[in-house]
Amino acid sequence: FVICHDGELGRTSNGAGQIAALTLAELRQYDFGSWFSPAFAGTRIPTLEELLALVQNMEVINSEIKGLGRPGTNPEQALQQLIAQLDAFGCTGRTILSSFRHDWLLQAKKLVPQLRTGLLYDRVYSPDGTLRLVREYQADAIHPSLRVLTPEIMETCREHGIAVNVWTVDEPDAIKKALGYRVTGIITNVPDRAVALRDKYRG
Predict the structure, then answer these.
(1) Collapsing DSSP states into helix, strand and coil, what is residue 25?
(2) In the chain, at which end, N or C, are there fewer CB atoms within 10 A of the end residue's CB?
(3) Alpha-carbon distances of 143 from 7, 64, 163, rounded to whole Å
(4) Would the pTM of this model clear 0.85, i.e. be above it?
(5) CA distance 126 to 92
(6) What gap in Å lies between CA 95 and CA 114, rounded to an integer?
(7) In 3D, which of 154, 178, 181 has the Cα closest to residue 168?
(8) Confidence class of residue 203 from pLDDT cuts 50, 70 and 90?
(9) Each residue of 117-131: pLDDT tens digit?
């Protein structure tokens, strides 16, 4: 497993094509840092093991599954390998596994019932529809886009013990809106800004 936001190489590296179509050795040839800043030139794509070594002491690890290997890969076997890596670093109990592929999350939950899962989505659900979605996939959390979250959904989730982690909340007004909803967590590219606003809001 490798860590990258995109399924394709073009935007975040000097390569081209689908990540899943290449071996790790092939992926390691590309520069994944220069697009962000010259200071990161030469950065290679990290593996899941390398990431877990860095974050294994974090209180919460949000791990989004974007793919489970090359076409034809058995999803259950890939999930077993993923969970084995989480176990090896002692991270399983502190990880929230999230994905837009809710069926993968249900498979993971069946493999390890204590593993927490969060349903990523960007469509409008009613409060009752949200509850049905969570129950259908046996999830612990919803990870909606902030734009589709409502006070009524928040109330339903609080009543039923469902965590709510919103994405991707970077702008100050959006962070303040999420804080006003009293969400469980904020998924952001600017954690320092979010923490500062949270502390100010609480104060």
Answers:
(1) helix
(2) C
(3) 20, 10, 8
(4) yes
(5) 31
(6) 10
(7) 178
(8) low
(9) 999 999 999 999 999
Exposed, middle or buried, 66 (CB in 10 Å: 0-12/13-18/19+)?
A: middle
Percent of the chain beyond pLDDT 70? 100
Tokens of 148: 């589709």
pLDDT for 72 equals 79
Q: Is there a contact between 120 and 64 (Cβ–Cβ < 8 Å)?
A: yes
How many H helices and E strands in the chain?
Answer: 8, 6
> What is the distance between the alpha carbons of residues 136 and 102, in angstroms, rounded to a whole number?
9
For residue 82, count CB atoms less than 10 angstroms from its CB and return exposed for 0-12, middle for 13-18, buried for 19 or more.
buried
Distance CA 79, CA 203 (A): 42
Query: What pLDDT shows up at residue 201?
Result: 84
Question: What's the mean pLDDT in 139-150?
Answer: 98
Task: Give the Cα separation of 133 and 111 in Å (integer).
Answer: 20
Q: What is the dihedral of CA 33, 62, 201, 154, to 10 degrees?
A: 130
* Those residues with Cβ within 8 angstroms of residue 199's Cβ, 6 or more apart along the chain or in another chain: none
b/e map 101-130, b = 16+ CB within 10 Å: bbebbbbbbeebeebbbbbbbeeebebeeb
- Across all residues in the chain, what is the average pLDDT? 96
